[in-house]
Write a structure and sequence with these properties.
By secondary structure, the chain is of the alpha/beta class. It has ten helices and 14 strands. Strand 11 and strand 12 form a beta hairpin.
Length: 349
């Protein structure tokens, strides 16, 4: 194992494996970070050499002929390839002492995920997994204001994709919401109910899971990749000091909070900003009490850009990623359990 140095005074040398629909976005953003002087973007590799060459020419970076060549030139690597290839590629890179950002799901099974986590720890490498919604401003808002979640409902719908068809919809789409909910609720899952059906593929294309946590919170998650429309929304009923219902849209990075109006709401400057929004509306009133709907104050950002910046900073500082290998494995374990429930309960023709 030969670990590349990550001197804070030097730019981190990054490369991308995979130039497909998501890989090209990694390439675009690393090129932007390189133009800003934040990284040294050293090249791209894909088994589809013509695709890689076109993108490399567009962003003026080299094309590597192999993963080994990319590893030799890099401190850190984004793996943006089919799920079935994640383990072999990440293991090779970690064994060589390279820092890795691997797209979700990190691997196809729990044993492979555990091995990658162990390799990263043994070799002192950063292992980050691409659960991009954790970098969506929506997630930051949820953590700040819905401090005692009691019920969560998430919908993640899309038309049938041209990518990630090597896994079912739970590992393809629902795993984003599983990662968010686990990080948000911060409690053990005590029960899982799930149902799903295949429509266009051999695996489930529509799925629903109902999770119960040790602290009493319940989450109901629905994912579909045969929907005519795209939807990425989460709704949270929260108790605690600020009892509220929050409805948020990941795609639009906007939403509303519904809460009980108080007399003399002067607790803090942050609450005043929230409670006295100019577009607030009274939506219900009973016995002198009012429920107010207000738009949430969210500054829009590109989550993938924030994710890649975070990865680079973790490599530079030897920090622990927000979505570490250990964290991503918990979401993967739960996704695999949901998949097992679906497979067990699905009638066979």
């Amino acid at each position: 194992m030969t670990q590349k140095s990550s001197n804070p005074a030097e730019k981190v040398k990054v490369s991308v494996l995979g130039a497909g629909s998501l890989g090209k976005e990694h390439i675009r953003l690393y090129a932007d970070l390189a133009a800003a002087g934040l990284v040294d973007f050293v090249g791209v590799h894909d088994v589809a050499k013509d695709v890689a060459r076109k993108l490399a020419e567009k962003y003026r970076v080299p094309v590597f002929d192999s993963t080994e060549e990319a590893a030799a030139a890099s401190d850190a690597v984004s793996i943006v390839t089919p799920t079935t290839t994640h383990f072999a590629l990440a293991r090779l890179l970690l064994q060589k002492g390279r820092h890795v950002l691997v797209e979700k799901p990190m691997t196809a099974n729990a044993a492979e995920a555990a091995e990658l986590v162990q390799l990263a720890n043994t070799n002192g490498c950063v292992l980050q997994v691409g659960h991009v919604e954790r970098f969506n401003p929506i997630f930051n808002y949820l953590e700040s204001f819905a401090t005692s979640p009691r019920f969560i409902e998430a919908h993640r719908l899309s038309p049938y994709p041209k990518r990630s068809t090597d896994v079912g919809v739970v590992l393809d789409l629902m795993i984003h919401d599983l990662d968010v909910v686990l990080a948000f609720v911060k409690s053990l899952v005590t029960s899982v109910d799930a149902v799903g059906i295949p429509v266009l593929s051999q695996t489930e294309d529509i799925a629903n899971a109902r999770l119960r946590f040790a602290n009493g919170c319940v989450a109901n998650l629905t994912a579909s990749r045969v929907s005519p429309d795209r939807m990425r929304k989460i709704r949270v009923f929260s108790g605690g000091p600020l009892t509220s219902y929050i409805s948020l849209d990941y795609r639009a990075q906007e939403g509303f909070i519904y809460r009980i109006a108080r007399d003399g709401e002067e607790e803090s400057s942050l609450l005043r900003k929230l409670f006295h929004a100019k577009d607030s509306t009274i939506v219900s009133e009973f016995a002198g009490r009012k429920i107010v709907r207000e738009p949430v104050p969210i500054a829009k950002e590109e989550p993938l850009k924030l994710e890649l910046q975070h990865f680079v900073e973790c490599v530079r500082s030897h920090g622990t990623p927000m979505v570490s290998g250990e964290s991503a494995k918990r979401a993967l374990d739960l996704a695999l359990e949901i998949t097992r429930r679906i497979e067990t309960d699905t009638p066979r023709s």
